[in-house]
Design goal:
This is Sortase. Keywords: Hydrolase, Membrane, Transmembrane, Transmembrane helix. The chain crosses the membrane at residues 7-28. Pfam families: Sortase. It is built from three helices and ten strands, in the order αββββαββββαββ. The protein has a single domain, classed as Sortase, Chain: A (Beta Barrel). 30% of the residues lie in helices and 32% in strands. The chain has helices at 2-51, 96-99, 163-167; strands at residues 56-57, 68-70, 73-81, 86-91, 104-107, 115-118, 137-142, 146-159, 174-179, 185-194. β3 (73-81) and β4 form a beta hairpin. Strands 1, 2, 3, 4, 5, 6, 7, 8, 9 and 10 form a ten-stranded mixed β-sheet that branches. With 197 residues, it is an alpha+beta fold.
Length: 197
Amino acid sequence: MKNRGTCGIICMIVGLLFLGGAIGLLGYNTWQEKEGEESMTRIMKEMDPIITPLKHEVDILPKTMQTVSVEGNEYIGVLEIPRIGTMFPILENLSDEQLKIAPCRYKGSYLNDTMILAGHNYREGFGIIKQLEIGDVVTFTDTIGNTIKYQVSNVEIIEGTNVEAMEEGEDWDLTLFSCTYGGQERYTVRCTRVASK
């Protein structure tokens, strides 16, 4: 009888430890999400006066990608999703630390229609791409005001380990992706470039 009581107490303690760990992890993730959102808002306030006055749609782009430095990080431009009413500063290079600040260029370039952008799935951050639907407009404005208009042409979920599927495809000019809630898959939005009028 004594062993059953001891075993029950140990199970309860282990259960409480797991519960405490889960609550701690949730708290940390919530804090990190809030920090990321505040960082993007702060950066957009600095980038907006630089880029907005120069904004114009183009078909022909410069030969090299220009950057602007904000808070010691290099940005290649701003991604805008008009239907949702949100804008994201886009970091030049991807790293775990950079992803905590803002969405990053994973691979490719807007100069040759091969750009792939990655971001954390924060609710008010890049996770918002889950709301995009086929036909929605997405724009990218580089640091010298060149604006490229895209239209969502495909939405899919790709296994997180399937890098080839993420990078493949000549049918789209811009790819946006973020982890699903479980983190094992990537919510992926494919876009094609729209010629300016």
